[in-house]
Amino acid sequence: MLSLDQISSYQENGFLILENLIDKRDCDNLKERIHFLIENEYGNEPISIFDTDREKHINDEYFLNSGDKIRFFFEREAFVDEEIRKKPVEARLNKIGHALHDLDPVFNKFSRQEKLAELVHDLGLLDPLIVQSMYIFKQPHIGGEVNPHQDGTFLITSPDTLVGLWFALEDSTLENGCLWAIPKGHHDPLKSIFVRRPEHAPGFVDYDSTPWNLKEMIPLEVKKGAVIVLHSRLPHMSFENRSSQSRHAYTLHCIEKNSEYAKNNWLQRSPGMPFKGFFP
Ligand code: FE2
After folding, report:
1. How far is ligand 1, taken at its centre, from the CA of residue 165, in Å?
2. Distance 96 CA to ligand 1 centre (A)
3. 278 assigned to some structural domain
4. Is 37:104 a contact under the CB 8 Å cutoff?
5. pTM score
């Protein structure tokens, strides 16, 4: 699947861009399916707002129990303005997560394509598990900024084997809030972890509170159908979307089965629904 140059580029830089890996019709299928899920699965959901502001979400049971469900999270700005409040739910969601890949047949089929299994295998996961999926809207005009972070902060394994796959379902540009990342930033350790704690609300444990140098961030603009592979410790972010174009993306996070998934990770599965690999 990957050339040796691509593998060494990933190891050196902490990310890898694979243009045209996904058929554009598959991108459209996911967008149509998400429309169907919102029409049919979004019922009397509690209002939960996705906010990368550190102290949010912490006591939000709807969020904390979403690891084995399909749940709907709104943009912070979805409720601020009267005109925006009148828009349909679909125009105000920030993301849907976190078990689309196991619970929905269309997302299951997309997520478990042979070429994706080969891709993560080439990156060193010999027996991969898919632990998380998200559909991200980055809505026109109100799409919120995602603060600089490392994905490994939120999905801890020992040793650290997390690999993120970020699928561009639409062109992702400077205007509509593409990803930004610090090349080679993954050579530094995790700055913090976000964990469940006994007798406390889940929260961050900081190892290094110095902020990342945003001047080192470079934009990762990609076309619809591209995949961006992200190392667990690669610092990345995205700015808000003030353009009139949405920037839909789908993400998967994989770990090596033989690495230990932290018992205090925020994302946990119920006993009847363990993490699964790419194939039965
Ligand atoms: Fe991320």
Report:
1. 10
2. 14
3. no
4. yes
5. 0.95
